[in-house]
Amino acid sequence: MESRHLTLSNLESSNDYDPNSMSVEQARQFIRQFLVPISEQEIVGLHQALQRTLAADVLSPMNVPPHDNSAMDGYAVRHADLNKDATKLKLMGSSHAGHPFGGHVSAGECIRIMTGALIPDGCDAVVMQEHAKLDGGAVVMGSGHNLGQNIRLAGEDIKRGATVLSRGQVIRPVGLGLLASLGLSEATVYRKMRVAIFSTGDELRQPGTPLESGQIYDSNRFSLFGLLSELGGVEILDMGNVRDDRDCLKAALLDAASRSDVVITSGGVSVGEADYIKQLLAEIGEVVFWKIAMKPGRPLAYGKIGSSHFFGLPGNPVAVMVTFLQFVRDALHLLMGRQLKSAFTLKATCVSKIKKSPGRTEFQRGILTQDESGALVVHVTGDQGSGILSSMSRANCFIVLPVSQGNIEAGSSVDVQLF
Ligand code: AMP
Ligand code: MG
């Protein structure tokens, strides 16, 4: 992907750039054109590979299973021997998982076999032990058995050379199991992305310290830490909180950018402060400033400081989480070289009445459940103020109300995004 040079002048000359109003989708697309994925790779052991992004396709070096083996406990036989009502076969030995029968099985003979054990040479079917009777040194079984029955064939799960995981895929628990099942003890992944975070605001205090009048605890940094940790593949640089002071802010931004691929801050981008941070960023980097037609999360800054990407999120705790989930998360996935999963929405019946004026996309916090008939129903978590973090904590989804939508009557169908 070619990176576009980001300057305010070329943005301002582009048709869809309006810093005073941008739809959620326009803003997403806009940010996307400046994102160039990480290319540096490293090789890590399986325990370190969880949640990392594969930098190369993984081809299977072997067949899985590696040999024909039994799907049942029973007797391995030659199918051609089983053409009579009751066949009596001489029991020649046994094949256990990890302890194969070494010899060849000839006509009139059979082998005791356990699940997962190698099918002995000469055999082409397994008769379940429930369908056979031991009679001294022989085994008696009826007819009606099929050629190849109860045999798992070599390569039936994965053929040698098949692509089992692809570049850009995140390694999940099943991916670890899959790599191990192929005998692979390492994976080639993209390097971790370094993300620096800090909060801005003179009112902020660190949890665990006493509050003085007018102060509040800094919660955004911890929500962000959690959101970033969940992505995996991110090295988080927590830079604490920074006072609303131009020089402090400038120093913090420069320091953060010099040490990370992405800088995420919260606060200080609301209407009154926008010009101030815009000027500061114009001085040390390039910034695109938006009022996005959304609620919560109207102000959002995106830009670059040196080669670092900068996201200036709003200060209100719910707005931080909403803007992170709607814009930053996908941007980070792309920067980490990940395949983007298309975010799907569900339709649910909204049992709450919602007040809304057309003009902005709203992300109301909802609780999605099923009614007695199994249909999806959703209700709002109550007060939707953008500072009410408990509303986010009770919710399990966003109720997404499109720009043109007005009031919602109870019983209407709405779009829901599950967390
Ligand atoms: P701002 O965008 O800086 O004007 O902040 C908007 C609101 O969010 C104000 O009420 C701030 O006190 C609050 N706020 C800003 N940063 C944080 C933070 N890190 N943790 C909790 N609340 C915050
Ligand atoms: Mg502030």
Instruction: Please state the average pLDDT score.
Output: 93
Radius of gyration: 31 Å
Number of strands: 26
Proportion of residues in β-strands? 25-35%
Class per helix and strand makeup: alpha/beta
Strand order of the largest sheet: 7-4-6-5-9-8
Biggest sheet overview: 6 strands, mixed
* Ligand list: adenosine monophosphate, magnesium ion
Helix content: 10-25%
Shape: elongated
How many helices does DSSP assign? 9
The span between the termini is 30 Å
The residue ranges in which pLDDT falls below 50 over 5 or more consecutive positions are: none
List the defining traits of the structure above.
single chain, 419 residues, alpha/beta, six-stranded mixed β-sheet, 9 helices, 22% helix, binds adenosine monophosphate, binds magnesium ion
Q: Overview of this structure, please?
A:
The strands form 7 sheets. The chain has a 6-stranded mixed β-sheet with strand order 7-4-6-5-9-8, with no helix packed on it. A 6-stranded mixed β-sheet has the order 16-13-17-21-20-18, with helices on both faces. It has 419 residues and is α/β, with parallel strands linked by helices. Helix content is 22%, strand content 31%. The longest helix has 19 residues. 36% of the residues are buried. The radius of gyration is 31 Å and the shape is elongated. Strand 20 and strand 21 form a beta hairpin. The mean pLDDT is 93. Helix 2 packs parallel to helix 8 and helix 5 packs parallel to helix 8. The structure holds adenosine monophosphate (AMP) and magnesium ion (MG). The site of magnesium ion (MG) has 5 residues, from loops.
